[in-house]
Amino acid sequence: MAEGTVERTLVLVKPDGVRRGLIGEILGRLERKQLRVVAAKLTSVSSVTAETHYAEHKGKPFYPGLVTHITSAPVFAVVLEGRSAISVVRLITGATNPQTAAPGTIRGDLALAVTPNLIHASDSPASAAREIALFFQPSEFSEYDRVGSEYA
Ligand code: IDP
Ligand code: MG
Predict the structure, then answer these.
(1) Which residue ranges make up each domain of the chain?
(2) Which residue in 62, 74, 94, 102 has its CB near the most CB atoms, within 10 A?
(3) Buried b (16+ CB within 10 A) or exposed e, 108-143
């Protein structure tokens, strides 16, 4: 079986996760999977950034509430790197609706409502590239040797 291409993906701990004090819990799960944090910051999302980030959902009934939520308090934005990082992070995140997300996933274990579902995770290489560029400048990335990286 192929080992998987090394990818980068954007994770946002959404305002509900920040306000509930779950940044560490959420990032801990992703770090223990051996994903590498290559950029990270606590940041407020402007309305313009929110509308750009969620452009694909414009016009849907939940869109206004989604923009209101993501701009309601800071998010913790992280770029994670690793083999098949995009699909691996989506699996650990769980289904969009926390009420049906599998136990063992972040949403399945820790959330209940749909809009405040703790975490955003890029869903494809194209989305990841677009979203990473929306939240981070090239100068915000760091390179380092992670202990145990020979097993990741
Ligand atoms: P995803 O975050 O699992 O990729 P998307 O379909 O891309 O899910 O939707 C983006 C976000 O919009 C969700 O994470 C959730 O916060 C919100 N959302 C999606 N569908 C609904 C809905 O039916 N009701 C309320 N909020 C929703
Ligand atoms: Mg999505």
Answers:
(1) 6-140
(2) 94
(3) bebbeeeebbbbbbbbeeebbeebbeebbeeeeeee
Single pTM value for the model = 0.98
Active site residue 69: no
According to DSSP, residue 44 is labeled P
Residue 100 confidence (pLDDT): 98
Nearest ligand atom owner, CA of 57? 1
The ligand minimizing its distance to the Cα of 14 is 1
Q: Which CATH class is domain 6-140?
A: alpha beta
Pocket flag, ligand 1, residue 96 (CB < 6 Å): yes
d(CA 96, CA 131): 18
**Whole-number pLDDT of residue 2:** 86
Q: Is the CB of 129 under 6 A from ligand 1?
A: no
pLDDT of residue 1: 85
